[in-house]
Automatic annotation (TrEMBL):
The keyword Chaperone does not apply. Residues 16-191 form the Nitroreductase domain. Belongs to the nitroreductase family. It comes from Paenibacillus flagellatus. This is Nitroreductase family protein. One of its GO terms (molecular function) is oxidoreductase activity. It holds the Pfam family Nitroreductase. Keywords: Oxidoreductase.
Length: 218
């Protein structure tokens, strides 16, 4: 049964405070493909390096595919119980899309002169990156879009949990992921059936330093 949770009026600060990592889901609540598309559409408004948008989303909804993904994710039950699990990938060759992206930006009002000078610089810079540097950028940008997706889901009344506990090697093999893409994380999304763990956070004074790193752990 596909269920659309009624969108509520919640400000950003409420969403931030109420979002938790939820590991128990109601398997009877299924989010439609259309609503998942809307959530991704909102998530991809996140920033990225040179606006190259290296994120790619493999949305796993089919029960048979969920069953294949679960052992790859260390048998975490949310993979099969949640409405969907998003396999988030990062494209280490995202610069190949620079022409398309910046042509569309020109259509949206960007100066063509800027586009014509900037795109060649993008290609020159990113083609010279080491594999490690390209991977790092893809992972950082993936983290930005992942957080935005989770906040969007919470704003719509859904719950999520990001997962780093999976085998990238088995994921790549099972889903035939091309070598240019790096697995970033898995994100299960659905309607929580149980609350998350109580939150505990370090204080601002424990994590923040002003102008110099006085008192940081060494």
């Amino acid at each position: 049964m596909e269920t659309r949770v009624e969108t509520r009026e919640a400000d950003l600060f409420t969403v931030i405070r109420e979002r938790q990592s939820i590991r128990g889901y109601d398997p009877n609540v299924q989010i439609s493909e259309q609503e998942l598309r809307e959530m991704i559409e909102e998530a991809v408004l996140a920033p990225s390096s040179s606006n190259l948008q290296p994120w790619r989303f493999l949305v796993v909804q089919d029960p048979a595919v969920k069953a294949k993904l679960q052992p790859i994710a260390n048998n975490q039950k949310q993979v099969t119980e949640s409405s969907a699990t998003v396999v988030l990938l990062g494209d280490t060759e995202a610069y190949r899309n620079a022409d398309v992206i910046y042509d569309r930006a020109v259509e949206a009002g960007l100066s063509k002169e800027f586009r014509d000078s900037y795109v060649p610089r993008i290609k020159e810079y990113y083609t010279r990156l080491t594999p490690e540097a390209a991977r790092s950028i893809a992972l950082i940008d993936g983290g930005l879009v992942a957080m935005q997706f989770m906040l969007v889901a919470k704003a719509r009344g859904y719950d999520t949990v990001p997962m780093g506990g999976f085998s990238p090697e088995k994921l790549i093999e099972e889903f035939d992921i091309p070598s240019r893409y790096v697995p970033v994380m898995l994100i299960s999304v659905g309607k929580g059936a149980a609350p998350g763990f109580p939150k505990a956070r370090l204080t601002v004074d424990e994590v923040t330093f002003w102008n110099r790193l006085d008192g940081i752990d060494r």
